[in-house]
């Protein structure tokens, strides 16, 4: 022992000179395993969040763990590379480790890194080897590494590869590592996000067995991305797992890696090198950046658990019609909201499970009739249907009326974005509330407007919400309501003033009346 050494340095010196002690200690600690065999990866003093990641990998009680960390944090090195090896060579004694990346190129790179280290790291070979690569006659992506001394296997695949039912001898995967399986393009639309969620729940989770661990590493790309969906399920108690979030600079403006960025100036230098402020905030600060086309932001959405007691003052149903009936056509959407209260005290509660289907003309009318019958007992008045009546759609207005629905046709004279923007203030101040469950697709279309492939629910919502706003006549910043005259009142008694049925928007016309 060197009297000038710290106890930690003495410990590592002993390990360096004692093979048996080194094997024993490194098998029991992922942290020591990494520091002993992969010192060449440590360019800067490790931070506490690195220790947190080691603890996550060592704690087998967490069957699902998500690690979201800033770019360049070393998360893939510690989890996808080092933990994959230690889980087999250490006390966890995994038999089949499966690493899945988004693309084949990423999977190739991870395989190359692991293979290179096993071939060139003499100390690791001496203590833990020998190792060999097993090649399949099939495509490269199912090539794998087999450890002769344990019989364990590491296999790497890509998201688009079929791996249903894979086994290594009698073993199902007992450790599945998902490394950056999403990107900006895959999370851009609701269809893309739902596809990866379905893939995870239907393809990945069933791959394992009792005791299988799933660890995800990545970044924050969208508030509805897979890691965020799973996090919400964990927060609600619907799923058991842990979520860890490591931005470069935390909410207290404290840098999480002081060993590398020991001054604020170094953090600032990195920020300037990134050059793109949005990329900096998303990749390093782990902020989900809203697209500039958005008119309603996720943080504005306010929810309710239960509807108020008693019958609603009014029920409004916005209807967005799809004229075409082809497989690629839009959906017909009907979004209902119950209004409680009067004037500036009124609040609209969007009802869960809105209708969103491809429906032929007769079914649209029958659906409206059935919805009218179901909602009528819940309100002091007949439900009011707001139906777009541009061109051919006029026949639906007449058909709804003949089916016994109180209906008003409205002609759109501006774009959908403007119509949704009209409602954004009322969403933000809590005059329009959404259910905690049952409106996920609607909320996704509203907060992702301009990005999502479909906007049927959002458009139906905008028609119902516009009617609610017009009825309560609550001032909107920058918008003035004016009376331009119009049709007679719809059939049925109304609690609203006669002139409330005639409106237009000064300087930015949103709707014309039927």
From TrEMBL:
<dbReference type="InterPro" id="IPR027417">
    <property type="entry name" value="P-loop_NTPase"/>
</dbReference>
<protein>
    <recommendedName>
        <fullName>Terminase large subunit gp17-like C-terminal domain-containing protein</fullName>
    </recommendedName>
</protein>
<dbReference type="InterPro" id="IPR006517">
    <property type="entry name" value="Phage_terminase_lsu-like_C"/>
</dbReference>
């Amino acid at each position: 022992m060197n009297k000038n050494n710290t106890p930690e340095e003495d410990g590592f010196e002993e390990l360096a000179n004692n093979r048996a002690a080194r094997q024993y200690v490194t098998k029991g600690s992922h942290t020591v395993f990494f520091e002993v065999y992969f010192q060449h990866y440590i360019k800067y003093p490790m931070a506490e969040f690195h220790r947190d990641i080691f603890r996550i990998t060592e704690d087998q009680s967490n069957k699902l763990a998500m690690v979201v960390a800033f770019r360049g944090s070393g998360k893939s090195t510690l989890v996808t590379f080092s933990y994959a090896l230690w889980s087999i060579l250490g006390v966890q004694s995994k038999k089949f480790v499966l690493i899945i990346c988004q693309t084949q190129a990423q999977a190739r790179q991870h395989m190359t890194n692991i293979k290179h280290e096993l071939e060139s790291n003499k100390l690791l070979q001496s203590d833990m080897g020998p190792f060999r690569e097993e090649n399949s006659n099939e495509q490269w992506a199912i090539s794998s590494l087999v450890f002769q001394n344990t019989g364990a296997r590491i296999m790497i695949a890509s998201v688009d590869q079929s791996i249903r039912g894979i086994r290594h001898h009698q073993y199902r995967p007992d450790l599945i590592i998902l490394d950056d399986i999403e990107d900006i393009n895959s999370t851009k639309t609701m269809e893309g996000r739902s596809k990866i969620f379905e893939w995870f729940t239907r393809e990945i989770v069933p791959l394992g067995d009792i005791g299988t661990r799933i660890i995800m590493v990545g970044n924050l790309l969208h508030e509805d991305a897979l890691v965020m969906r799973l996090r919400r399920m964990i927060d609600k108690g619907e799923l058991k797992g842990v979520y860890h979030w490591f931005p470069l600079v935390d909410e207290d403006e404290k840098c999480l890696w002081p060993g590398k960025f020991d001054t604020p100036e170094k953090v600032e230098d990195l920020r300037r090198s990134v050059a793109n402020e949005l990329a900096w905030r998303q990749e390093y600060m782990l902020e989900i950046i809203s697209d500039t086309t958005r008119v309603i932001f996720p943080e504005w959405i306010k929810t309710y658990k239960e509807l108020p007691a008693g019958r609603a003052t009014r029920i409004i149903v916005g209807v967005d019609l799809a004229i075409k009936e082809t497989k690629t056509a839009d959906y017909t959407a009907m979004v209902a909201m119950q209004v409680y209260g009067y004037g500036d005290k009124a609040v609209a509660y969007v009802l869960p499970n809105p209708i969103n289907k491809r429906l032929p003309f007769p079914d649209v009318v029958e659906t409206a009739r059935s919805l009218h019958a179901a909602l009528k007992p819940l309100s002091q008045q007949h439900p009011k249907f707001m139906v777009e009546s541009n061109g051919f759609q006029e026949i639906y207005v007449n058909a709804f009326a003949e089916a016994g629905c109180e209906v008003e046709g409205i002609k759109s004279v501006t774009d959908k974005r403007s119509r949704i923007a009209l409602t954004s203030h009322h969403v933000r101040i809590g005059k329009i509330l959404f259910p905690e469950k049952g409106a996920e697709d609607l909320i996704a279309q509203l907060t992702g407007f301009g990005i999502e492939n479909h906007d049927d629910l959002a458009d139906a919502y905008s028609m119902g919400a516009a009617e609610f706003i017009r009825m309560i006549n609550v001032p909107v910043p920058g918008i003035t309501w004016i009376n331009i005259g119009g049709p007679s009142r719809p059939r049925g008694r109304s609690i609203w003033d006669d002139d409330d049925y005639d409106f237009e928007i000064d300087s930015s016309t949103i709707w014309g009346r039927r």
